[in-house]
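re: ur question from yesterday

yeah so i grabbed the chain u mentioned. its 100 aa long if i counted rite. heres the sequnce exactly as i have it in my notes:
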Amino acid sequence: VLAAAWDGALRAPVLKLFGDAVEKNREMALTLTTGVVEKLPSLESTVPTLIPTIAARVGTTPFQETCEEVRLQLLELTQLTISRAPAQLAPYAKALGSVC
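ran it thru and got these structure tokens back, copy pasting raw so excuse formatting
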């Protein structure tokens, strides 16, 4: 049920909130995404949108993400994604390199 909801209606709008002007919205989107990434049985459909979204926020200097706490959340989510889906990340090596 979670995977269907995430893939169907939630993923795109939640990831869009990573770039919201309001810091609290970005924090809440990251908290929700982290919880989902922890519980999904597979990240196969999430990785192709998640990694580029994270890289867009913290993969270039100056950082698009201005809040240090949110940058930390983005890096923690990156670490979680790497640990949960290492086999799916090869196509995103350049984006991950810019983040890490």
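noticed a couple things. The mean pLDDT is 96. also The CA atoms of residues 12 and 62 lie 25 Å apart.
anyway ttyl
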